[in-house]
Amino acid sequence: MPTAPTFGVKVIALAAVLLAAPSFAAAPSAALAPAVANASDVRPKAYNIGGALALGDNTGFQFQSSTGPVRLDIGTVTNESAVNTSGSVRVGLFVTDGPSATAGTYWTIAWTDLGSLQAGFYFEPVSRTVPYASPPDGVYFLHMGVFEYEPATCLAPNGYCLDDYVSFVNRVQVVGGQIFDAGPPLTPQGVAVEYYHSLFGHYFTTAYVNEVQLLDAGAFPNWRRTGRTFNVWTADNGTLAGVCRFFSTSFAPRSSHFYSPYADECNTVLGNPNWQFEAIAFYVELPDTSGNCAPGRQQLYRLYNDGRSGAPNHRYTTSLAVRFDMVSIGWISEGWGPLGTIACVPV
């Protein structure tokens, strides 16, 4: 594993080491016959929402045609209880009309029964080809779940309660009983606008429309547009990283904002009394550890002034020219790869 970059904020002694940035594999782009979805195409797993049964890694499926059958692949199904033998265990694909796997109506479209599990035991691996049961026509979100037969406590008509699940990135569309890949949900985008404070020598970027309007109207003296912008996502589609935004007045009269899409770095700053968490400001994709972004994305660079103004300040840009100019005057490049990619944003 390559050495992770460290990101410094002068005066507050921030030195957060990032986890390896995940890469998001493209989900299937053709009809689900014979497309495959596997563990790289799933959203974060829900850990034991309703019981002791847990799905393991390498969860995926493959439709043999648009009307089935369907191969279900799961690395492990474990009974994590220390004392109780489970009810009958069922694993299967199910669809929902909204992104939540646990709210609203769901339809199980392919499943297999595995039997009961003693406490601490597991099934490994599970790979079975089963029939496809079509839901009503529509566009759905797709999940793989492990269900336990608990008729005394379960509200489901068939007595099977959902214990654990993973959600896939791509949606599916059902037309006339046939099922096809519908791609990921469209994610709304916004524009991050950059400003410069001539007295502080500081840069500030915001994607909030109301803040842009106030800044442009002169509500905050000495802040002026630089003419630089970049696109961001304003909501999460299940594959994006939220960018935490912090604010500090601990370096008065100068103030400063700080942005990070990395949970470890955000947690470090959260623990520092000089910085106040404001919000998840927008959403981005994470680069790989070489600083590369997926097609259709552009690299976002972060530059740090090393406290030269008497206060920490960062500049965020998609412009290589700006990046090289800031480095040439002593700003520090922060991020992955030789150019310091902090995130990936829409083109």
Tell me how many strands there are: 24
Judging from the principal axes of the Cα atoms, what is the shape?
elongated
N-to-C series of helices and strands: EEEEEEEEEEEEEEEEHEEEHEEEHEE
Figure out the total of helices.
3
Largest sheet: 5 strands, antiparallel
What does the average pLDDT come to?
84
Radius of gyration: 24 Å
As residue ranges, the low-confidence spans are 1-35
Provide the domain count. 2
- Classification by helices and strands: mainly beta
In spatial order, strands of the major sheet run 9-8-12-13-14
Question: What portion of residues is helical?
Answer: under 10%
Share of β-strand residues:
over 45%
Distance between the termini: 29 Å
Which terms would index this structure?
single chain; 347 residues; mainly beta; Coagulation Factor XIII, Chain A, domain 1; elongated; disordered N terminus
Task: Give a brief outline of the structure.
With 347 residues, the chain is mainly beta.
Can you walk me through this structure?
- The chain is mainly β and 347 residues long.
- The protein has two domains: 180 residues, no CATH class; 147 residues, Coagulation Factor XIII, Chain A, domain 1, CATH 2.70.50.
- Helices cover 7% and strands 45% of the residues.
